[in-house]
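Late entry, evening session. Most of the bench is empty. Finally got around to the prediction I had been postponing all week. Sequence below, unchanged from the version circulated by S.P.
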Amino acid sequence: GLTVTAEQAGTAQPVAVDGEGWYLVTDTYNGKAGTPAVVATTVNVLDNLRIVADAKTGQGGITTVGRFNAKNENPLTPPSKTAKVGDVDVNGKTVNVGDTVDFTVSAAVPASAANYDVYPFTITDTASKGLKVAETNTFKVQVDGKDVDAALYKVEQTGSAAVGTTTTITFASAKSLAGKTIVVSYTGVVTKDALTGLDGSVDNKATITTNGGTSGEGKTESKTYGFQFKKIGVDNDANALAGAQFVVKKKDGKFLKQDTESKAWSSVDDQTNATVFTSGADGLVQFKGLAAGDYTVMETSAPSGYAQNFRVTFDVSIAENGTVTFKQDLLHQVTLPADDQIATVKNVKSITQLPLTGAAGTTLFTVVALLVAGAGVTVAVKSRQRMH
């Protein structure tokens, strides 16, 4: 038996045997058995005997009998992955439908690759449905921040955002990159295919395959969420009110715009460019595929017959875990959801129909009183002006 130290790796080591002949050589590393080989000893009277060995197994550099390259590799290190939107890490966090996510896959080529005549190396990257992965000609493959010679690899892709996409980066031989880390960069756009109802998720995983087998997975995952409410009115519309119109504003003051076909979200500065959402016959208003954050919903138009001066504005927050919290408006036209119920947002036709309680009622009537007082002052001023 022979134990090879780390310092002896890649060097020739003599093994004493009982005599000329054929020997079965086995090797183990960390308790794992390598591939056994039958090796012939040298022959005293034919010490210049030449042989031809199989290059694919890494034995091609051997030209005489009595030699054998043991190729037991360390277990493959799974690739590492990152996912960012701009400078924001979204792995384990949230994204909007329409966001462009920058992905990287970092795959280490074992140092032992240098000992092979040929060292095939394949990175397999699998995106879930809901990610439109960029075209293969936009993929960047780099080592130490520099582009790898395109002649060393090929990029192939199958699938789509609707079913999921698999991309392979295949090196016929990565021997020249032994001990280096290959970094693959590409983009993916989150699509409406990610959604299941209001919410959804996208994930992306990668593996490495070499002579030694296939590694474990490196993975990123991002969630997307949404919220909904039911518009109600009075009298015959007490259960559902159609025709109310809304826009949504983010915490940064920008308004949300949603593409009609792709359902991708974007930000606009001007409210006139924001998407207007209208309650249907069931009263429902839904916002799907949003990242976590704070949002303000503004009613821009009440249905015909309803008071325009009591349109509702209220805040909604989506937590990183998807929990949706509605903040009640000052006049209590928003009814907070309980259990599995949906929040309701009420329109009224007159002030007497407002669901006023506590401080909200006091505040409203204080405002009304101030308006009346202001009107009185105006009348008095105008009256004095007439007397002059």
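Two things to note before I forget:
The radius of gyration is 35 Å.
Residues 129 and 162 are 5 Å apart (CA to CA).
Will write this up properly tomorrow.
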